[in-house]
Amino acid sequence: MTRTLIIGAALSTLLIGLALLSLVWTPYDHTSLNIPNKLQPPGAAHLLGTDHLGRDILSMVMVGARTSLGVALLALAIGLSLGVPLGLAAAMHKGNWLDETIMRGNDIVFAFPLLVMAILITAVFGPSATNAIVAFGIFNIPVFARVTRGGALPLWEREFILAARVAGKSHAHISIEHILPNVLNLLIVQGTIQFALGIQVEAALSFVGLGVQPPTPSLGRMLADAQTLVTLAPHIAIVPGVAIIGIVMGLNLLGDGLRDALDPRLQKART
Amino acid sequence: MLRYMLKRLASLVLSLAVASLIIFALIEVAPGDPASFMLGINAQPETLAALRAELGLDVPKVQRYLTWVGGMLTGDFGTSYTYRTPVAEMVADRIAVSLPLALYALILSILIAFPAGIFAASRRGRPGDLGVMGATQFGVALPNFWFAMMLVLVFAIQLRWFPAGGFAGWDKGLLAGLTSLTLPAIALALPQAAILTRVMRSALLDVLGEDFMRTARAKGLSARQTLWRHGLRNAMIPVLTIIGLQFSFLFAGTIIIEQVFYLPGLGRLIFQSISARDLIVVESVVMLVVFAVILINFLVDLAYAVVDPRLRSPK
């Protein structure tokens, strides 16, 4: 369904674009306080209203989304850079001690519920954006190891790999040169999904004070601030929440659309 | 069947052992000595040493680990550094809120997802299916704690149907307890129901394409009978996996939701203990949650064997 892909790509591009735009331009300075002007509902001067300190919510959401995207992206990078090599190595010698160790290790990391792991890490090392990134990054490692291994295993049975082995290429060489490009589709799809999940995790951790710390704005932090004020001015809770839903929906639709577009088997099944 | 169970049991024990080592090691590297934290910076060295001995902090690490694990196995979770009460008692009070909340949410999730998934699968590609699938995309993206705030805004503050927060306590009766847990359970359940609906739909669609489904139709069963007798049972494997995962997720998710509704559950206990650096409580509660998750995965594995006889005997 290319419609999914188009909607997903449009929504993600629009919202991520707005977040990136905040690097060069925001309607107002998101740090400038204007207490007399606090808790204004959305209007002409402030499109999405102002918060309890009179800051422009649109500007805050743009900058906050950038922080959230950064957290999710870095956690994704940790997961990819460690998970993919582990998955490739595990698939290289299916069933041997390395494969077993990696897969059992993965089972154990999976047994830690993500939030509990994040809480444990932040309890020990203190709440910070970095620790939230590390916590979610660690969770991403087995996810990508599993996807990579799962995609790589059937490839090792294929003739073109056999040909490469006959040609005398080492296992590691084949993994990088032939296996990796062929599991890239899977990684892109999983990557979009984990990216979206990262946005949600940042929001949840920052909401309970374990993620991004003040004064840096993030979507989760804005919601934490909004919790006590939601009855007075619902818009300060609604706006960041809708931003999270928009970004996550956009990325999820993009992931679904990419999966359909990149997997020829699914296309055949549909027609 | 027995061999399958034993193998699963061995992996359960191994996972628990490794998990306990990781948790213990992480807490060990935590900066700051609990005893000096409790006594403050002006503590006398002798008092400090006495407290360290009382808390069992002066013995070697290996022995401390063994004492902790041994204690957990016998239901002794240690003594809270700040409250000086047994952690097991504190946990028991809190789990009476968190566990029912997670179960309540899981039941809601299943009650929403099964009909929605079956409805979508039976109308594949038609407007009804597209509507359900669109709704699930929204549901999956919905942050449960934000949704919780919105529920409070509408159903507690504007309509006043439910309390905005706090827990009535089970001693006030089942209904009072459930009423305080209803909004939190809905907030937790809806995003999970969206995921479960998608799994239910795709599992059913996979099964509907199978040859035995055609055979069942050919021998004269109606579409509805085929779906109920053969379709659902065969679609249960992926659905059970996700239900198992969801329970762990919901149990951990209560930690955040309890913050929105000021519920006195395990989540609030963890956060209070973190800010008081009461690490023995954090350690034991985290181990307990991890234990619950590993145990649930084990039970799901066993449930597979019941649903799918092919898994009982190894190939």
UniProtKB/TrEMBL annotation, chain A:
CDD domains in the cross-refs: TM_PBP2
Name of one Pfam family that matches: BPD_transp_1
PROSITE patterns: ABC_TM1
Membrane-spanning parts: 69-88, 108-126, 232-255
One of the GO BP terms on file: transmembrane transport
Keywords carried by this UniProt record: Cell membrane, Membrane, Transmembrane, Transmembrane helix, Transport
Localization (cell): Cell membrane
Keyword Transmembrane helix included in the entry's annotation: yes
Domain of life: Bacteria
PANTHER family in the record: OLIGOPEPTIDE TRANSPORT SYSTEM PERMEASE PROTEIN APPC (PTHR43386), PEPTIDE ABC TRANSPORTER PERMEASE PROTEIN (PTHR43386:SF25)
Listed name of the protein: Peptide ABC transporter permease
GO cellular component: plasma membrane
Membrane topology: Multi-pass membrane protein
Family, per entry: Belongs to the binding-protein-dependent transport system permease family.
Ranges of residues in domain ABC transmembrane type-1: 65-255
Primary localisation category: membrane
Keyword Cell membrane included in the entry's annotation: yes
Organism: Roseobacter cerasinus
SUPFAM superfamilies: MetI-like
